[in-house]
Design a protein that fits this description.
Elements: H1 8-14, H2 17-28, E1 35-36, E2 38-44, E3 46-47, E4 56-57, H3 59-69, E5 75-76, H4 79-88, E6 92-93, E7 96-102, H5 106-119, E8 124-127, H6 129-133, H7 142-150, E9 154-157, H8 169-188, E10 194-196, H9 204-212, E11 217-219, E12 226-227, E13 238-239, H10 247-254, E14 257-258, E15 261-265, E16 278-282, E17 293-296, E18 304-308, E19 312-316, E20 324-333, E21 339-348
Parallel strand pairs: 2-7, 2-13, 3-4, 5-7, 7-8, 8-9, 10-11, 14-21
Antiparallel strand pairs: 1-6, 2-12, 15-16, 16-19, 17-20, 18-19, 20-21
Helix pairs in contact: 3-5, 3-10, 8-9
């Protein structure tokens, strides 16, 4: 339920029209089928609901996305298959995409579901149970959710009340997860295996709780490409909304490649020292890092970046992050006109 501010820095990096058009021309060229160990996960909320542009995509945007995804260049898989491939060491088709939808708004059933179903595109719906139970007209009904599961939709856990989890502690957050899990299982016959943090807010405490709760993976709401070897309880998703869902930007996103990294400092997105010393170590060769640029959401210029030993990236910020949600996006050109993308969320109490 947040504005997709995480892409602002990346748009600065990708904003030159000439660069964008050159990349798109490369992407239009026929590509040989390849195996990959990464996938782009998309995040939607509302569809055709102009009241909330920060969490909505227009019908025209949605139909353009579906046309792109069904063009033959991509493999759209259930999120469960993507995560299983990572966890079992199996390769994925190049340009694999997964679709997720948060919050179970009524427009999912009215606008998106019939179009995704007609196109044969699988998706995972993350449900917060309280507004569905309350019969809130802005949300789907359990009958509608059951209909979608009968036609292949997967259901994920999104808590009962869509609360801000950070700082509430394991007892309160655990109760929300447990109650939602029980209710979703009761009403759909499907026990969720994935969790999405409400508002995309999480720290190490919430990641640990999601893992101990028995989920196979948990998802945030910040830009980046999932990949084998990534931490399964802090996975990124590219959020779609009216401002960041045009066809050119969508093509760039669904063709994105990872900057596979580990040894993040800080590992906990909930910041202590602010600004933090930020860094990560590359897990694989991604070519020259000379064009790597990292953009914090609270700065109007790239952060200072230093490459150590060809694998370690250290980033320094000129100013502290403001209270609330912030992000950093690191991007660099990849092969065949594609872009590599890494994001991390930060939260200041």
């Amino acid at each position: 339920m947040t504005v997709d501010t995480q892409t602002m820095g990346a748009r600065k990096r990708l904003g030159l029209r000439a660069v964008l058009m050159a990349a798109l021309l490369c992407l239009l060229a026929p590509q040989a089928a390849m195996a990959a160990d990464s996938a782009v996960i998309l995040l939607y909320h509302r569809f055709g609901d102009a009241r909330y542009p920060s969490t909505n995509v227009t019908v025209e945007q949605l139909e353009a996305h579906i046309a792109e995804l069904t063009s033959g260049a991509y493999t759209v898989l259930p999120v469960a298959e993507i995560i299983a491939a990572y966890q079992n060491g199996r390769a994925l088709p190049d340009r694999t995409v997964g679709i997720t939808i948060d919050d179970a708004y009524a427009s999912v059933y009215e606008v998106a579901y019939p179009r995704f179903r007609a196109a044969g595109l699988p998706f995972t719906l993350f449900v917060s149970t309280e507004p569905v139970d309350a019969g809130d007209g802005d949300f789907m009904t359990w009958d509608q959710i059951r209909e979608m599961t009968a036609h292949g939709a997967d259901i994920g856990n999104h808590t009962v009340t869509h609360l801000h989890m950070i700082g509430l502690g394991d007892a309160r957050n655990g109760e929300e997860i447990t109650r939602a899990q029980s209710r979703i299982t009761e009403m759909t016959g499907q026990a969720p295996v994935f969790f999405a943090y409400p508002y995309g807010e999480f720290g190490t405490a919430e990641m640990s709780l999601a893992e101990r709760s028995g989920f196979r993976a948990a998802f945030g709401q910040y830009s980046g490409v999932t990949h084998a070897g990534a931490h399964m309880f802090s996975l990124p998703r590219f959020a779609m909304n009216e401002s960041y869902a045009d066809k050119d930007r969508f093509r760039l996103v669904v063709n994105a490649l990872p900057i596979p990294a580990r040894e993040y400092v800080p590992f906990d997105p909930v910041l202590g020292p602010n600004p933090p010393p930020f860094g990560f170590t590359l897990m694989a060769d991604v070519g020259s890092l000379s064009q790597l640029a990292c953009y914090p959401s609270h700065m109007d210029k790239p952060a200072k970046t230093e490459i150590l030993g060809g694998k370690r990236v250290e980033v320094r910020f000129d100013a502290p992050f403001p209270p609330g949600r912030s992000r950093i996006n690191c991007t660099m050109p990849g092969p065949d006109g594609r872009w590599r993308w890494l994001g991390r969320p930060f939260f200041v109490r």
